[in-house]
């Protein structure tokens, strides 16, 4: 006797321990057949749920139609409904990502917010077996390691996929049998995206020749997912064997690493934790045959060959980007230079922009020496209107690297001095000034 | 600067340590572009080699044309040439396998014979990157574990694949540039076989959309091959942890197995060594929740739940497949029946094929009772020419299961009796016979 999809659904949920069925779940519903069936199954199984819908505003009227459709669906099931409209195209421009990546990022971020705010235990999506097979085939063709072969996970953080056990066909049949209404996403039926190429061309072609292919591939994926667990277990053993920590330095014995099998993969797994890209990993492996003193520098670490060891040290942290100056301190340092402070009673006249002389009465301690940031403004000496630093830099014709090195001195939230460039008008020496603060900036090479 | 294929070929051979380049290698050459380029590269690199060609006699004149082409090739390179003609269709019938399986089995068996007889260190085949990608994609679609994802190995036993690093395209370009002659296999250009479906349809489709796909897939395969090594390392650790041997019994603690992660894969890896099929492995896992005394029986072992243990014992060995009969023994047994022997002086006439009467003078002891095997022949009673048993069975219209149960009685390397069927002409009673050996076979139910 063939199991009904409802039975299979319930046993998949319990077998994979996806969630405690008394907990309320937030369903991500686009309005397509997959998520409509998911909703129907949650209702039939008497699970507690709410519906969330994202309108990506990519398909004009059609996007609006879908939003209304899902709203009606929530009304019909009498469950809470959450919806949002995204400027997806704006996001793609601002973050320089594809429409698909933008939609995914926006969707998961918003769903997670709703989940936390409203107290749902998990977010459920309607991914099914075909989605999974598409993902893995795509990764396989794009080039991946074993982590790219496990496909879509049934449970990942706060996201669950309770339909992964079943095929699209089955969902369609069920929708028909239960006379479920749903909407069609017109972008699904074009070959606009890589995924759709696999969905509409590659996989149907394979399945026309081998009807069991999707199920078989899903079986392969399941076994590779288990294989990945074993892979990770073995990686842990190798790391323990190879990495020694001494003070702030990780050490790896060269001979031991050289003899490690499989060398490339273990090196990749070890060094990626020190921000090594795959090509940098090859450079690190080249160190095994090089002389002492050679090194590879990643974004965060230096890996240096030292006799029979590779030594891994973190790159120096930048100086604290904020230096606090208490009253009486005569000197402080930061990455780009040092600042000397001196109380004087006679005004100091200098042509050097690295010397500033302020009215000490205006200055509040502690002073703060910090890098400038977007939004900073000040009243440039000689002006009565405030000016944004970004604007001031344009006037000064600063290059990008020059701008990046600018520090400011702050007194009670007011900028006193754009160091080495201009003091603030409010701190200038006036006729009534009695005590002065003399500042001298020395840039480091 | 682009590496030439010859340079890449040589560095691949050394990097993968395929063979010591002073050793002579036997090249499997079909006459197609791949193996023709392989031959040319071996010659250019000044490696020592010979050429072997299999004629599967599947394409009539074309097969003959290829055989002659490769023979000429060997002449041109002035290297030893070995060739063979197979009755591939006969083999498919006799072994109930596909043409592709038949061809593969015949080819590798024969190549290995030549290699051993003639003292070549390795057999080299011309498999390239596309072949590898096809194999893995096919396995992926048919359903496989991690072992099915490593693809064609650069070195496996005595077989090496020195062209795995390169794409078909590159071989074609090289053949063109070097003006190499080669033959086209007409069966390659049809979609007759699964492989050709992937070769001519699936992969070109993917590659038309993603030109880097084949290279990327080859990269994935390489990484999965390394992942498999780690997988195996972790499996070994789990086996050590779980299996205890006591006398002739393997023992596994139930609780420890239950807690193992990933359970299914580890169970599969452990129990397949005791001939468990994947579905039997599931039955074994069910034993973890069953009462004492339940068991699963595989082809070779019984796995029984005994309190907090699984006990694994070998099934009784089959009767020795060879029974030695010394002079004077009156009865012996084997799996399919028992044989009684008696010296008589009067000829025994019987219509039963289970009774045989021989000239005792011709019989040498010890007699051997054993299963028949391929290559056996005898002189059937009444015939002066010898006949292969396989042929004799066809004449007798024996089914495959019937054939499998046939025993023969042997005397000094000569078959005396095909038990229950026909005696050998050389042992028949003649006018000069004085003493006789009466044999009676009783088949067991």
From TrEMBL, chains A, B:
Its EC number is 6.3.4.19. It is found in: Cytoplasm. InterPro entries: Lysidine-tRNA-synth_C, Rossmann-like_a/b/a_fold, TilS/TtcA_N, tRNA_Ile_lys_synt, tRNA_Ile_lys_synt_N. Residues 367-441 form the Lysidine-tRNA(Ile) synthetase C-terminal domain. The keyword Nucleotide-binding applies. It is an enzyme of class 6 (ligase). Coiled coil: none annotated. One of its GO terms (molecular function) is tRNA(Ile)-lysidine synthase activity. The keyword Cytoplasm applies. It catalyses: cytidine(34) in tRNA(Ile2) + L-lysine + ATP = lysidine(34) in tRNA(Ile2) + AMP + diphosphate + H(+). Keywords: ATP-binding, Cytoplasm, Ligase, Nucleotide-binding, tRNA processing. SUPFAM superfamilies: Adenine nucleotide alpha hydrolases-like, PheT/TilS domain. Pfam families: ATP_bind_3, TilS_C. ATP binds at residues 30-35. It comes from the Bacteria. CDD domains: TilS_N. Ligates lysine onto the cytidine present at position 34 of the AUA codon-specific tRNA(Ile) that contains the anticodon CAU, in an ATP-dependent manner. Cytidine is converted to lysidine, thus changing the amino acid specificity of the tRNA from methionine to isoleucine. NCBIfam families: lysidine_TilS_C (TIGR02433), lysidine_TilS_N (TIGR02432). The N-terminal region contains the highly conserved SGGXDS motif, predicted to be a P-loop motif involved in ATP binding. Belongs to the tRNA(Ile)-lysidine synthase family. This is tRNA(Ile)-lysidine synthase. The gene is tilS.
């Amino acid at each position: 006797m063939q199991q009904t999809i409802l039975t299979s659904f319930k046993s998949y949920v319990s077998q994979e321990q996806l969630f405690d069925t008394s907990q309320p779940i937030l369903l991500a519903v686009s309005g397509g057949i997959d998520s409509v069936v998911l909703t129907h199954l949650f209702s039939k199984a008497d699970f507690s749920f709410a519906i969330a819908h994202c309108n990506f505003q990519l398909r004009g009227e059609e996007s609006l139609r879908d939003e209304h459709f899902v709203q009606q669906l929530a009304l019909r099931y009498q469950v809470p409904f959450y919806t949002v409209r995204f400027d997806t195209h704006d996001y793609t421009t601002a973050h320089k990502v594809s429409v698909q990546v933008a939609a995914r990022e926006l969707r998961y971020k918003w769903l997670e917010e709703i989940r936390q705010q409203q107290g749902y235990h998990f977010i459920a999506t309607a991914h099914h077996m075909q989605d999974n097979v598409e993902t893995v085939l795509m990764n396989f063709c794009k080039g991946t390691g074993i982590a790219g072969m496990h496909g879509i996970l049934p449970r990942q953080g706060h996201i669950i996929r309770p339909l992964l056990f079943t095929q699209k066909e089955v969902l369609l049949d069920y929708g028909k049998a239960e006379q479920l209404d749903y909407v069609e996403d017109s972008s699904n039926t074009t070959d606009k995206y890589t995924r759709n190429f696999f969905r509409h061309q590659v996989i149907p072609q394979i399945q026309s020749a081998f009807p069991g292919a999707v199920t078989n591939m899903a079986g392969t994926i399941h076994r590779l997912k288990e294989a990945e667990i074993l892979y990770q277990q073995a990686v842990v053993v190798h790391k323990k064997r190879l990495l020694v920590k001494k003070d702030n330095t990780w050490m790896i014995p060269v001979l031991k690493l050289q003899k490690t099998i499989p060398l490339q993969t273990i090196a990749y797994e070890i060094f990626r934790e020190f921000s090594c890209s795959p090509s940098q990993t090859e450079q690190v492996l080249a160190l095994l045959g090089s002389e002492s003193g050679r090194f590879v520098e990643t974004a965060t670490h230096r890996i240096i060959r030292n006799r029979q060891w590779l030594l891994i040290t973190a790159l120096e942290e930048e100086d604290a980007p904020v230096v606090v100056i208490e009253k009486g301190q005569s000197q402080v340092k930061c990455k780009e230079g040092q600042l000397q402070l001196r109380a004087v009673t006679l005004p100091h006249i200098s042509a050097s922009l690295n010397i500033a002389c302020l009215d000490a009465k205006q200055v509040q301690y502690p002073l703060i020496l910090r890098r400038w940031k977007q939004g900073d403004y000040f009243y440039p000496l000689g002006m009565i209107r405030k000016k944004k630093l970004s604007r001031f830099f344009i006037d000064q014709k600063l290059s990008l690297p020059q701008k990046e090195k600018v520090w400011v001195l702050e007194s009670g939230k007011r900028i006193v001095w754009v160091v080495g460039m201009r003091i603030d008008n409010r701190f200038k020496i006036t006729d009534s000034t009695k005590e002065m603060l003399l500042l001298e900036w020395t840039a480091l090479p």
